[in-house]
Design a protein that fits this description.
CATH class of the largest domain: Alpha Beta
Shape: globular
Helix content: 40-55%
CATH architecture of the largest domain: 3-Layer(aba) Sandwich
CATH topology of the largest domain: Rossmann fold
Strand order of the largest sheet: 7-6-8-9-10-13-14
Order of helices and strands: HEHEHEHEHEHEHHEHEHEHHEHHHEEEE
Structural class: alpha/beta
Number of domains: 2
Radius of gyration: 21 Å
Length: 402
């Protein structure tokens, strides 16, 4: 099934290339040009602005927009204002590649943030490499993006977001060592993200003495989980290892309550378990849930608290989600790299970013030789209906040879 998923992605990317050529846009775009002395610094933000994952794209856009407004209000960067250009990937390589090509050919961007969905970001890497456009990943979690970046070959791709590999190791270590969870039922969304996260999780099973008693996948549109949950109920599982999205997690939680699983089997992995709306769906089910995230609105640092305050003030009290934060932070990181370079030339900024030390909201940001920021992850466990921070962890990653 994983091979079929990979083949579908390759076919989709090939189709995107064909559509681009048919529409008259070059696959290998000319190198991005720096803005004129009085011009704006154009930064593309590509993500799912429509479709099932549009809420995540909306958070990303609002976070990036807040950063741009704050920077511009403070005088801009090297005398330039930041102008964001929005692109809609719909979480697919086809639409994402089209949006990226339009940005490069028509908007002449030199910098781009993308994407929420890893399959789209993977498709961007060869394009920005040919066009010499700086891509800073602020949300995609597939580690293969990093494996291919920097010394992996794609020197125009950087990552300011932890990977699913890091997340899996942190969650499973805590579950096994602190909660003595050793038998899990796998229940994950059936897409590149869900299957990839489970494959990475399995790498840690032996290390932490964990085994899977069942393994099931579901479409993102699935609303009926009772048959699978009833099977899990009698499997001996101590936890459900789940990777998915908030809407599915709320449905699973409610149906776990119906199945009598509250207090007997906990949720671990990543599915917005610590989101107040998810917890509200079935508090007794979510108690004990374990999740690691790149950031949370409850993170205790002055910079993080200032961001939450400013975001809520800007967007009518809306509590920011992780992608709002990571896009806000990455726009600020990119602005710092431009200042360090003393230039808006993408090549100069790329060199500056590779050697930058940035004081981020969750700690110091530096990039390794694969252009991956060494970022911590925050581990949460739900207690009495509220997410409680159990620690901030970093995990060393051993990269495969290029």
């Amino acid at each position: 099934m994983r091979d079929l998923t990979r083949k579908r992605i390759l076919c989709v990317f090939a189709a995107a290339c064909g559509m681009i050529l048919a529409g008259g846009l070059p696959l290998t775009a000319p190198a991005a040009t720096a803005p004129a002395a009085s011009g704006d610094i154009k930064i593309g933000v590509i993500g799912p602005m429509t479709g099932a994952n549009a809420p995540y794209g909306s958070f990303a856009w609002r976070g990036a927009s807040l950063a741009a407004r704050e920077i511009n209000a403070a005088g801009g960067v090297l005398g330039h204002k930041i102008a964001l250009v929005r692109g809609d990937s719909q979480c697919t390589p086809v639409e994402g590649v089209l949006a990226l090509q339009r940005m490069i050919s028509s908007d002449h961007i030199g910098f781009v943030l993308g994407d929420i969905c890893s399959s789209a970001t993977l498709a961007y890497e060869p394009i920005v490499e040919n066009a010499k456009v700086l891509l800073v990943n602020a949300a995609s979690s597939d580690p293969s993006i990093t494996y291919k970046a920097g010394v992996g070959g794609f020197k125009w791709t950087f990552r300011n977001y932890p990977t699913d590999e890091q997340r899996a190791g942190i969650v499973l270590k805590y579950a096994a060592e602190q909660d003595h969870i050793h038998k899990v039922a796998i229940l994950s969304v059936d897409n590149d993200y869900g299957r990839g996260a489970i494959a990475l999780s399995k790498k840690f099973f032996k290390r932490y003495g964990i085994s899977a008693v069942s393994e099931d996948y579901f479409e993102a549109s699935t609303t009926e989980f009772l048959p699978i949950l009833n099977k899990i109920k009698n499997s001996g599982a101590q936890a459900i290892l789940m990777y998915g999205y908030a809407a599915s997690s709320r449905l699973v939680a409610r149906q776990m309550l119906e199945s009598g699983l509250a207090g007997k089997i906990v949720l671990i992995g990543n599915g917005d378990f610590t989101n107040p709306q998810t917890i509200k769906a079935a508090p007794s089910v979510l108690n004990g849930a374990i999740e690691a995230a790149a950031w949370s609105a409850g993170y205790d640092s002055a910079r993080s608290k200032a961001f939450v305050h400013d975001y809520e003030a800007a967007y009518d009290g809306e509590v920011p989600q992780v992608h709002a934060f990571t896009h806000w932070e990455t726009i600020n990181l990119l602005a710092a790299a431009i200042r360090k370079a003393g230039s808006v030339d993408p090549a100069a900024v790329r060199s500056a970013l590779a050697s930058i030390t940035f004081d981020g909201a969750t700690g110091e940001v530096k990039f390794d030789d694969h252009d991956q920021a060494d970022l911590p992850m925050i581990l949460f466990q739900v207690e009495n209906g509220k997410p409680v921070i159990k620690g901030v962890f970093r995990t060393a990653v051993v990269y495969p040879k290029p």
